[in-house]
Amino acid sequence: MSLGSSLPSLTLEAACNNAYAAGVLLVAAAGNSGPPRGNNSTVNYPARYSSVIAVSATDSNDAFATFSSAGPEVELAAPGVAIYSTLPTYTVTLTSTYGLNYGTLNGTSMACPHVSGTAALAMATYPSYTNLEIRSLLQNTDDDLGVAGVDRYYGYGLVDADEAAPNLVPDTTPPVISSVAASTTATTATITWVTDEPATSVVNYGTTTALGSTVTDTTLTTTHSVTLTGLSPETAYYFEVQSADAAGNLTTDNNGGLFYSFTTPAAPANSVSIADITMSTTTYKRAVLLYLRHSTRNSSGSGRQPGHRSYGLRPLERPDGRPGHGRHQHPRSGGPDLGYRPECGRDVHLHRGRRYA
Question: Which of 12, 35, 154, 355 could pair with 145 in a Cys bridge, judged by C-beta atoms 3.0 to 4.6 Å apart?
Answer without folding.
Answer: 154
